[in-house]
């Protein structure tokens, strides 16, 4: 594999050409015997051995022996000279060196890089030598009398330039001006959706013996290359992107690395080119891990099927090291999967992945399902994240002209995700962000409703959530406004009361009416309070299925019992007892907001029994209220101040009843227990 050509394609952001190049390389069948391979090259380039000898500057007899394998050499430059003479490309040259047993051209070594540039540019040996001389290196050795150059096998250290050398014609080479490096910058800038879509830019700051400062710059873009030498002011414009490249005055400007061979800064352009290769490798390593990206999308063939795919790192729980993937095939099949290693590039590149990133273990998915409902119980928390990235993938598909699955409406998906995000923030008790997301969603729902789609249920539920969040943020006026909005939807909600899909809206309306009734009570509007509570009860009674609905009925029963206890104590008692039965049977204590409400209903029931009906059965309910408070305190489910305030009230009432019913000893024991 011609790795350097591959990285040249990556460096120029030519993502569309990478796969074609790798697959073309895989099809080549070159011999691994040097003489046979060189015969293949002579035939491919239609060149004679005699011409090779003349162009390489080697003796004809020696060239023949090297090509036929009857003579061996330890001078790598002889092999390189023949490759240049034939006109072989970079990959073929590297293959020739490798099968001969010579070190291949090391891109980290500047001398090797110059020779490689000459090969890739299709230049002859004279051009290669001219570039080597300009950078301060020895010519390619083509006779025993010429000096040898050290061969760099690996590592980052380039060969040092030779400041003075002898030409073949006996003339001395010119002295290379010395510079001191003062700064270095290499950056990769994303410029598209494809995994290799980057612009690479680099700059070297240099100072000469006189203190003059120059900046050697290189830019690699999908549309071409730009190399320049800038003064300090021009570099400031280049670095800050304050002006278009064509508008920045340059001391020298070139459109290819080969053209820079005429510049005295040639060696530094090569250094930038080498360092950019390092940046490409670093960028590719980053591209192989989705945690550095917000989300990643792709479209193509996976396992022979055309599909869209995406991957997101789970930043909500980074300690889990989870990469979540969604694949949607054109045939309608969907795959939700999770792994502990990023798999996006494996999906994106398929069989060419190992040629870019090296061989790695195949991906291991610890979650794989064809629907969100199939996710194992311990991974149910992933449902929202999977759905969110699936919706984002649909947005990306629409933006890129790719058809989305049937039923995936953009407006519906957007409102769904905003609602889910709001719910997630509400669970984190981030009321402000949850509220903001619902407010962002509301205009979308209203627009759909206005356009003729019946969004009654969604509107009612959204208003109810906004009212609850306003209450949590201690904004009573806003909460009241949202409850009034629910009540305005009453007729629309009740017209669908028998529709199972409208259940949430019906209960939202009932709770809004119950809250409005409480406000009427505070204002002394008792008949209106009673009417609102009767309506709330009629909407909830007989419709409860889940615990939140039972909790709503529990509150309505308690509030209605409180509203009628003066006029109808026996009926009030009936409602209180029914509410307490629901609290016990449905285990409403597990809902934090219901705990003290249950204690309050035990107190209210006892009060009606004693104060309205004169029955000492009230003792049982007061004692139950005391037991519940003690349990909450032991489990730290009630603060100390609220506990003290209520326990004192209950003990006082119990002692009063004990004394009036001739049970003074019980009163004394109770007082002693609570330090009264």
Task: Describe, in plain words, how this protein is organized in 3D.
It is a single chain. This protein is α+β, with helices and mostly antiparallel strands and 676 residues long. Among the domains are: 31-134; 179-287, no CATH class; 291-408; 569-676, Alpha Horseshoe (Serine Threonine Protein Phosphatase 5, Tetratricopeptide repeat), CATH 1.25.40. 54% of the residues lie in helices and 11% in strands. The chain has 27 helices and ten strands. The protein has helices at 3-11, 15-27, 34-44, 49-56, 60-68, 76-86, 90-100, 110-120, 125-134, 232-240, 266-287, 344-349, 353-357, 382-399, 410-427, 431-450, 456-472, 476-488, 490-494, 503-522, 526-540, 547-564, 569-585, 592-612, 618-634, 640-660, 664-673; strands spanning 179-190, 198-208, 213-221, 224-230, 252-254, 296-302, 305-313, 323-329, 334-339, 365-369. The strands form two sheets. A five-stranded antiparallel sheet has the order 1-2-3-4-5. A five-stranded antiparallel sheet has the order 6-7-8-9-10. A hairpin with a 4-residue loop joins strand 2 (198-208) and strand 3 (213-221). Helix 1 (3-11) packs across helix 11, helix 22 (547-564) packs antiparallel against helix 23 (569-585) and helix 23 (569-585) packs antiparallel against helix 24 (592-612). The relative contact order is 0.04. Mean pLDDT is 87; it is low at 154-160 and 162-173.
């Amino acid at each position: 594999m011609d790795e350097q050509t591959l990285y040249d394609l990556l460096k120029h952001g030519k993502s569309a050409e990478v796969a074609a190049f790798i697959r073309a390389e895989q099809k080549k069948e070159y011999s691994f015997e040097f003489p046979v391979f060189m015969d293949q090259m002579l035939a491919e380039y239609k060149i004679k051995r005699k011409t090779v000898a003349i162009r390489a500057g080697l003796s004809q007899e020696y060239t023949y022996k090297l090509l036929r394998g009857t003579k061996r050499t330890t001078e790598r430059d002889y092999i390189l000279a023949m490759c240049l003479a034939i006109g072989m490309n970079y990959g073929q040259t590297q293959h020739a060196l490798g099968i001969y047993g010579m070190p291949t051209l090391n891109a980290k070594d500047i001398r090797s890089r110059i020779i490689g540039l000459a090969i890739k540019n299709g230049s002859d040996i004279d051009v290669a030598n001219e570039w080597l001389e300009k950078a301060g290196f020895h010519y390619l050795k083509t006779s025993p009398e010429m000096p040898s150059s050290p061969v760099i096998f690996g590592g980052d250290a380039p060969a040092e330039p030779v400041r003075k050398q002898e030409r073949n014609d006996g003339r001395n080479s010119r002295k290379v001006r010395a510079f001191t490096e003062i700064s270095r910058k290499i950056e990769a800038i994303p410029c598209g959706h494809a995994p290799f879509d980057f612009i690479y830019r680099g700059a070297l700051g240099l100072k000469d013996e006189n203190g003059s400062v120059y900046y050697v710059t290189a830019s690699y873009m999908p549309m071409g290359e730009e190399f320049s030498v800038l003064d300090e002011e021009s570099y400031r414009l280049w670095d800050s992107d304050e002006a278009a490249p064509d508008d920045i005055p340059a001391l020298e400007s070139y459109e290819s690395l080969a053209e820079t061979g005429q510049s005295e800064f040639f060696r530094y352009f090569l250094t930038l080119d080498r360092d950019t290769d390092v940046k490409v490798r670093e960028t590719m390593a980053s591209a192989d891990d989705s945690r550095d990206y917000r989300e990643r999308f792709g479209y193509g063939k996976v396992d022979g099927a055309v599909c869209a795919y995406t991957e997101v790192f789970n930043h909500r729980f980074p300690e889990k090291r989870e990469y979540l993937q969604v694949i949607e095939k054109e045939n309608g099949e969907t795959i939700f999967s999770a792994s502990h290693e990023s798999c996006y590039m494996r999906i994106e590149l398929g069989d060419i992945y190992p040629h870019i990133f090296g061989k790695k273990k195949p991906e291991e998915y610890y979650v794989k399902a064809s629907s969100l409902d199939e996710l194992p119980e311990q991974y149910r928390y992933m449902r929202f994240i999977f759905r969110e990235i699936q919706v984002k993938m649909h947005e990306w598909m629409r933006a890129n002209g790719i058809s989305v699955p049937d039923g995936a409406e953009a407006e519906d998906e957007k409102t769904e995700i905003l609602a889910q995000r709001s719910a997630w923030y509400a669970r984190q008790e981030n009321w402000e962000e949850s509220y903001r997301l619902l407010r962002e969603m509301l205009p979308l729902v209203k627009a759909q409703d206005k356009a003729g789609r019946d969004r009654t249920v969604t509107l009612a539920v959204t208003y109810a959530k906004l009212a609850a969040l306003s209450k949590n943020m201690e904004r009573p006026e806003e909460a009241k406004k949202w409850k009034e909005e629910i009540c305005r939807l009453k007729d629309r909600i009740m017209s669908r009361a028998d529709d199972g899909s409208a259940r949430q809206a019906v209960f939202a309306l009932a709770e809004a009416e119950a809250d409005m009734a409480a406000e009427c009570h505070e204002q002394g509007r008792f008949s209106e309070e009673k009417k609102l509570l009767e309506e709330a009860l009629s909407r909830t009674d007989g419709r409860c299925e889940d615990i939140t609905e039972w909790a709503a009925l529990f509150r309505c029963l308690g509030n209605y019992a409180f509203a009628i206890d003066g006029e109808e104590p026996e009926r009030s008692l009936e409602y209180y007892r029914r509410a307490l039965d629901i609290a016990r049977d449905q285990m409403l204590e597990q809902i934090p907001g219901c705990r003290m409400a249950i204690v309050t209903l035990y107190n209210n029931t006892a009060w009606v029994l004693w104060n309205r009906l004169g029955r000492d059965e009230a003792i049982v309910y007061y004692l139950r209220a005391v037991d519940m408070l003690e349990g909450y305190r032991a489990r730290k489910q009630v603060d100390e101040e609220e506990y003290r305030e209520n326990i004192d009230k209950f003990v006082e009432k119990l002692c009063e009843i004990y004394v009036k019913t001739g049970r003074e000893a019980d009163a004394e024991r109770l007082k002693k227990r609570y330090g009264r």
